[in-house]
Amino acid sequence: MYGLINEAMRRLITDQAGAQTWSRIAARAETAETFVGLLYYDDDVTYRLVGAASAELDTPAEDLLRAFGQYWSSRVGPENYRDVLGATGTSVTTVLANLDLMHARIQNLYPELVPPSFSVSDTFDGGVMVEYRSHREGLAPFVVGLLEGLGTLYNTPTVVTHERPRSEELPFDVFRVQIGG
Ligand code: HEM
């Protein structure tokens, strides 16, 4: 994944746990301590950082991924990618419906991007069902955090449930996103 992902993780952990802790995490993961946002790194670098952070912080990897998702949607997105986010939508539902368009736009800047795919499969009273497709493994907790973070960003109480994990029969994850009230 692009270095900007690893860099955002470094900032979040450095802010919360300090620079020394981050140094230990990078050493344990056998990675550099900083990353170039525009450079593409093997996905394994990111997974190793999450694993090392989980060990150093004594926190399950799922919890870290979820917190990182929340941070990405509610802080990194609006602070660093305000234009693309603003052009995508102005609420949880509009952004959700247009996430693929948004990543496609980002691909203009970052041509090696291998984005996930999201689609709203159903709407119900007070929310939507979202399908998430990716060729990567294990990122469902990150998606939960990303979706929760959109709620924070737009000041809309949002409850996210990982409704169905992907399987051989169903090659995508399903999330229930309850929006507002
Ligand atoms: C706001 C600005 C955003 C930017 C600049 C951005 C950019 C990126 C980048 C660079 C990657 C790494 C992929 C790669 O390098 O090949 C990525 C991955 C991902 N993005 Fe976004 N993204 C944004 C917002 C969002 C939002 C709001 C969501 C969902 C609610 C989302 C869902 C994901 C997921 C789940 C991945 C992990 C990759 C995978 O599942 O295969 N992104 N994004």
Q: Could you name the CATH topology of the largest domain?
A: H-NOX domain
Strand order of the largest sheet: 1-2-4-3
| The CATH homologous superfamily of the largest domain | H-NOX domain
Mean of the pLDDT scores? 97
Which distinct ligands sit in these coordinates? protoporphyrin IX containing FE
CATH architecture of the largest domain, please?
Alpha-Beta Complex
Index terms:
alpha+beta; H-NOX domain; four-stranded antiparallel beta sheet; 8 helices; 16% strand; globular; binds protoporphyrin IX containing FE
What features would you describe in this structure?
The chain is α+β, with helices and mostly antiparallel strands and 181 residues long. It folds into 2 domains: 3-59; 79-179, H-NOX domain (Alpha-Beta Complex). Helices cover 55% and strands 16% of the residues. It has a 4-stranded antiparallel beta sheet with strand order 1-2-4-3. Strand 3 and strand 4 form a beta hairpin. It is globular. Bound molecules: protoporphyrin IX containing FE. Protoporphyrin IX containing FE binds next to helix 1, helix 4, helix 5, helix 7 and helix 8.
